[in-house]
Design goal:
alpha/beta; two-stranded antiparallel sheet; 9-stranded mixed beta sheet
Length: 252
């Protein structure tokens, strides 16, 4: 079985996000970048399936500028077999990302596609669902547990009313939640070995997808500073404080 894992390079989750002074986006110059945490859980799930003898090959794909290959190398160090970098210097919209991934899926024909459920930089939660639609494959999102039985995948996911378990035939698309597993930290020998694994570079412009943006971001601004909390001595005082806040909001 072949597994394709899509990973995204984002501002490291330990770094405080800063908006550029001109409001055109989030500052990334000189900022530490890393693999989107949800994508890391997707890679770990693929590696565990391979270690259990249920997958023969793990292909990792990422889309972005040349230096995006660092997150692919991270996935290769975790245990993936080869990588594909779809190189694009410009900012791409989520639908374009899904369309480019669909082209790679058409070429690779994986049995299972794993992605993170969302990206932590823009909180988008689109690509997995869009990719499933574009490739006409069943999908299970927010996976917290995956069991593979032959050509059938059993996926457990958390929903508002508890947990539900879905059964879907392969090939399928699954997006990973943080509860799916605990991603491993690759040992130094694995990091060194990753550099010798195959990593193909494809130009996004050569995949036959219109890269022209359809949306215009007019301005991005940081959220307002959080107001410090305060303690109250009783429930009555708490209720009065809440009422005062509501009255003030209504007045605005």
């Amino acid at each position: 079985m072949k597994i394709l894992v899509a990973v995204k390079r984002v501002v490291d989750h330990n770094v405080r996000i800063r908006v550029r002074p001109d409001g055109t986006g989030v500052e990334t110059a000189g900022v530490r970048m890393s693999m989107n945490p949800f994508c890391k859980h997707a890679v770990e799930a693929a590696v565990q399936l391979a270690e259990a003898g249920k997958a023969d090959e793990i292909v990792v794909v990422s889309i972005g500028p040349k230096n995006t290959n660092d997150v692919i190398l991270t996935a290769l160090a975790m245990g993936a077999h080869r990588g594909i970098l779809v190189e694009a210097e410009q900012t791409l919209e989520t639908l374009t990302i899904a369309q480019l991934l669909a082209k790679i899926v058409d070429e690779e024909q994986p049995d299972l596609i794993l992605l993170g459920k969302q990206a932590v930089d823009d909180d988008s939660n689109h690509v997995g669902q869009m990719l499933a639609a574009l490739t006409n494959r069943p999908q299970a999102t927010f996976a917290s547990e995956i069991k593979l039985d032959g050509t059938t995948l059993e996926v457990t996911r958390e929903v508002d009313y508890g947990r539900e378990t879905l059964s879907l035939p392969l090939p399928a698309v699954v997006t990973a939640d943080l509860r799916l597993n605990t991603p491993r930290n690759a040992a130094l020998p694995m990091v060194m070995k990753a550099r010798s694994k195959p990593l193909a570079v494809r130009a996004a412009a050569d995949l036959g997808v219109d890269l022209t943006p359809r949306l215009i971001v007019e301005n991005i601004s940081p959220p307002p500073e959080r107001v410090a909390g305060r303690s109250v001595a009783s429930v009555a005082e708490f209720a009065a404080a809440v009422a005062a806040e509501v009255n003030e909001m209504e007045a605005l």
